[in-house]
Known about the structure:
Layout: H1 9-20, H2 27-36, H3 44-55, H4 58-63, H5 66-71, H6 76-97, H7 109-116, E1 125-131, E2 137-145, H8 155-164, E3 169-175, H9 185-199, E4 204-212, E5 215-218
Parallel strand pairs: 3-4
Antiparallel strand pairs: 1-2, 1-3, 4-5
Amino acid sequence: MQKADHSGHRSRMKKKLAQQGLDVFEPHEVLEILLYYAIPQRNTNDIAKNLIDRFGSFSAVLDAPLDMLKKAGLTEHQALYLKMLPDVTRLYLVDKYHNSDKVISSENLFGYIIDKFVGYEETEHVFLLLLDKKCKEVYSGMIGKGDFNSASISFREIVTLALNYGAVYAIIAHSHPSGYAMPSKDDVLVTKGLKKALDLVNVELLDHLVVADHDCVSLAESGLI
């Protein structure tokens, strides 16, 4: 009897994951995908099904003691990988929902932004901070390098990030390698254009900060937004 052709199965599963997320998969398929990263070049679908049959559910597999996972046929490396996942989930949730450092206020904003530019003093960089309705950080990262007023930043990219992360507020910042934090006329013009782009998707641009020589100037406080 001819064996089924499973070539390309992992690629198809990963493509589906990237396009549709985990919610479209059955529990054993989620476990199958997780095991890709601990068990290379083997059919992890059958392994996942057997583990769920043995322990009763997806969560029960992850909660199973290490020695029981090894008795079920996993190596210590594979069992440790699965045992780590609940801890990673807990760390993620604590960091996301109970981390006071992620709440951005007028008191901590300047220090937060200045610290993000440590090591980036020599070249102009553009930083984006996105917040939820409680002013808690949902995204932060450098999104451009070079002259702020050039094509180094894309309004479309910023709007897309804001939508993807469900942001309610946005703060933009960029550095001045010259050592002077005063915003230029072009900085103001680009900021107003970005504000209009974000307004179209109901995201409020709270501020644009210019950072230089461990100093920070707010366009909002300066009445330039």
